[in-house]
Specification:
The chain is 42% helix and 16% strand. By secondary structure, the protein is an alpha/beta fold. The two termini are 33 Å apart.
Length: 298
């Protein structure tokens, strides 16, 4: 049976905006976070403490974190690929940091400039420092079903990275379909691989919708009992180091599906749609959410 309650982490301000070519002012990012928390999101992935040369759009990370009026009960997470990023993030008082590795060697190289084994060596001190500071550590496993450079990725690769993350003390892993090539059974195999090393409560799904499979993949993950997902308001997003990848599954579409199934999210869909309209208007494009589009056109 499906979980009765699901937690969604909106990664729109981070995954959604990291790929935008023209600058999005910090004030707009802050306003987006405010709208998401007002809509009932309990966790927002706000920004990344990565190299501004690699991802210019996230260069305002500290400014964005400082500008947020925090709402009690809401968690604010940020990406930290190495100790330098973690140390920079610390002053922003994140509730959670995300180390991001990959199940594919080639993607790891392209995205964070090192192979899988070396990435774990970089994540270990981040994890240790974060846990010592009482900050929760999540690990993202990119290319968990397919890689833009290596093609299909075997579940054993996911299990391998999950095991390494477990060994260094990463508390939670997100199984990520970076380029949206996964289909339900393949995604289930990838999640089962992560479940060899992590408990069900410590595994989430992160599905990009490039091939239109993300909602089906979400349902497939729910069938396994997974109850935590990263989603992106208005379906924003992509990764600058994964050519052709589009946004994450739209938060609005997932909320519409879950509420239709009688599964609680704590999210107000109308307010969420407003948040999506806000950022889509700013970017000058239409929302990628089918549910939002349908409801707005009613
Ligand atoms: P590197 O060049 O190997 O780093 O990059 P380095 O340690 O050799 O340092 C080189 C320079 O970068 C130095 O500066 C460092 O100070 C600086 P210089 O002396 O030349 O002026 N530097 C930093 N600056 C700011 N913050 C830092 C930092 N670290 C070093 N943290 C690095 C390695 C990881 C930094 C780089 O490859 C990088 O920033 N990559 C980030 C790529 C990225 O953000 N990708 C998108 C996020 S992942 C994603 O979207 C996938 C996900 O959504 C799940 C999915 O869908 O799959 C999570
Ligand atoms: Mg992503």
């Amino acid at each position: 049976s499906y979980p009765s309650r699901v937690k969604l982490v909106d990664v729109g301000p981070r995954d959604g905006l990291q790929n935008e070519k023209s600058p999005v002012p910090a004030a707009v990012k802050i306003a987006l976070v405010h709208r998401l928390q007002d809509a009932g999101l309990r966790e927002v992935e706000v920004t990344s403490f990565v190299s501004p040369k690699w991802v210019p759009q996230m260069a305002d990370n500290a400014e964005v974190m400082a500008g947020i009026q925090r709402k009690p009960g809401v968690r604010y997470s940020v990406l930290t690929p190495n100790l330098k990023g973690f140390e920079a993030a610390l002053a922003s008082r994140p509730d959670e940091v995300v180390v991001f590795g990959a199940a594919s060697e080639a993607f790891s190289q392209k995205n964070i400039n090192c192979g899988i084994a070396e990435s774990i060596e970089r994540f270990a001190p981040v994890t240790e420092a974060a846990r010592a500071a009482g900050i929760y550590v999540r690990g993202a496993i990119s290319c968990a079903v397919g890689c833009p450079y290596e093609g299909e990725v075997a579940p054993e690769r996911v299990a391998y990275v999950a095991q390494l993350m477990k060994q260094i003390g990463v508390q939670h892993v997100g199984v990520a379909d970076t380029i949206g090539v996964g289909t339900p059974r393949k995604v289930q195999r990838a999640i089962e691989a992560a479940l060899q090393h992590y408990a069900l409560d410590d595994v989430s799904g992160h599905f990009h919708d490039t091939y239109g499979q993300a909602l089906a993949n979400t349902l497939a993950a729910l069938e396994l009992g997974v109850w935590q997902f990263d989603t992106s308001v208005a379906g924003l997003g992509g990764c600058p180091y994964a050519k052709g990848a589009t946004g994450n599954v739209a938060t609005e579409d997932v909320v519409y599906m879950l509420h239709g199934m009688g599964i609680e999210t704590g999210i107000n869909l109308d307010k969420l749609i407003d948040a999506g309209v806000y950022i889509s208007d700013f970017l000058g494009r239409k929302t990628q959410s089918r549910a939002a589009t349908a409801i707005l056109n009613k």
